[in-house]
Amino acid sequence: MGSLLLTSHWVFKFFFINLQFILFFLGSFSSCSSSSLHPLIANSKEVHQNYTAISDFRVVNRRFLSDCPDLSPYQKISVSSNPKLGDEEYVNVTVSGVLFPSELDWVAMISPSNADVNSCPFNGLYYAQTGDLSHLPLLCHYPVKSVFLSKDPDYLSCKKKECKKYIKGRCEVKTCSASVSFHVINIRTDIEFVFFSGGFDTPCILARTSPLSFLNPSKALYGHLSSIDSSGTSMRVTWVSGDNKTQQVQYAGGKTQTSQVTTFTQKDMRDSNILLSPAKHFGWHDPGFIHSAVMTGLQPSTNFTYRYGSDSVGWSDQIQFKTPPAGGSDELKFVAFGDMGKAPRDASVEHYIQPGSISVIEAVAKEVESGNVDSIFHIGDISYATGFLVEWDFFLHQIFPVASRVSYMTAIGNHERDYPESESVYVTPDSGGECGVPYETYFPMPIPAKDKPWYSIEQGSIHFTVISTENNWKENSEQYQWMKNDMASVDRSKTPWLIFTGHRPMYTSSTGLLSVDQAFVDAVEPLLVANKVDLALFGHVHNYERTCSVYKNVCLAMPTKDQSGIDTYDHSNYSAPVQAVIGMAGFVLDQFPSHVSSWSLKRISQFGYLRAHATKEEIKLEFVNAANKVVGDSFRIIKKQDSSNRQVKTGQ
């Protein structure tokens, strides 16, 4: 059975490699006038749904750019903004002088402002990874976001009229106008707004604004925290700036650390041998410079304040943060989720929208504000930028209210790492050519080396083993040996709980292609049982699901109800780990089939997060619905501790 499934895994790889050749062939010879998806792609949603966001806007720059008929000499586009843009504001864009309003009229935000928004007839293969095979692209550079003018309810009915021509005191020419709002954050590069007609299928340019610059493109922004070890006495803060000179973090009432500065370039992005990638070409956006500094000399489970920046670029506000508890201490409160991404805070269309992300991050922010969170674990599929690199800035802006306050630990997912010929386990183009480079730059975890995104950390009574399901996990691999050694070395008298985390799950009732890779399960699941892993947390599938104590698809133990009716797993007599899928933090939700396996005990298809409270005697975990804060599932894992260990700990 295992060898058959492993063969199926390689069959899929072979299929995708051949699909790339087909894309190349069809992209080279398809009709220039085509603006529809080729049936090969349109009929293969099962293949593409998890990594290619096929939508009208996603493939907008695969359309032929025609010339707009010059219907109105009065058309113009303007913005209501200060001469220089702030770090965050809503910019009103007004289009006026329109003779014939159309539901196909739209405005795009372009950055950098000098990006080529003409057609690129010689670069047809650049865009094949969007899933569209039309021969000619629309734009040489993707828009950051777009808004249809019909979002102004008065536009199509032309309630905002203006007379442009009078004859003998009578208005002979009336025009219409519309205003739409764009949520703009400091992305350092100039922006421009372009008025298109023809929708996303047959667009043409009507008017464009002058470039708009940010007041301080070098500003230190989007700071976020992470732990560097298990002591709770040091915290890393990472932020973005347009300036490559070193900056500082000032913290704890007078301490200072100088930043290390890094970045990445287009040369660091990857193409396959057949297809050019978004990250390296039409989706590229300059990331500025990523600064990172380690705050030392802290105390665990303690509140401090910090700010980052410099006198030349400006300073962030003073931010209060909390250090996590030291490994081996008793109590830890954490939140975990996967597959968050981001969503617009305006009426715009973006390349890859995760509709639940804002409600989840706002709910988690309230948890952090109340002091109920020591740390956060985001288990893969972080921003869903997938090669459209400006979207990393929008994601960092979105998580800032929580990631700047507590340790924000991450695991890599397929949308950060996977790409053909990049040594990822899976050959799908899910990262859009990023191949983990932006992820590792923005989120420096305590990993052993570059492109080895696995690590372990202890907080409170828990040892977390964090792996990469996208890098080699086979039995002869470096990561496999690391997993084996890491879990075997856990001192269970110090950290009685062992939680294993990675992106792709071992168990899910969802039936999507590659939801579970049986080869991964066969290789790694025995390690979990051998090392008595208490809980395994995964993402990738976009819902919440909890299992029994399961091994090889069999329930080795079932939870019992406590006095409050809560499912309770007693690991004093260990049998197998509890497994949970928690990929419900933003991406469009996956529904469950009508028939499920007996190991599946609880299933919820709602946006939310996992909330956990651990002591040395028990872990209590809850699924929290982000919209209404209702607890949809609750379970406990308990373990009787040896009394002599507790006495020794108390004496120490």
UniProtKB/TrEMBL annotation:
The keyword NAD does not apply. GO terms for cellular component: extracellular region. It comes from the Eukaryota. SUPFAM superfamilies: Metallo-dependent phosphatases, Purple acid phosphatase, N-terminal domain. Its EC number is 3.1.3.2. Residues 86-216 form the Purple acid phosphatase Fn3-like domain. Its cofactor is Fe cation; Zn(2+). One of its GO terms (molecular function) is metal ion binding. It is an enzyme of class 3 (hydrolase). Residues 332-544 form the Calcineurin-like phosphoesterase domain. Its main location: secreted. It catalyses: a phosphate monoester + H2O = an alcohol + phosphate. It holds the Pfam family Metallophos. Keywords: Glycoprotein, Hydrolase, Secreted, Signal, Zinc. Coiled coil: none annotated. It is found in: Secreted. Homodimer. Belongs to the metallophosphoesterase superfamily. Purple acid phosphatase family. This is Purple acid phosphatase. It comes from Parasponia andersonii (Sponia andersonii).
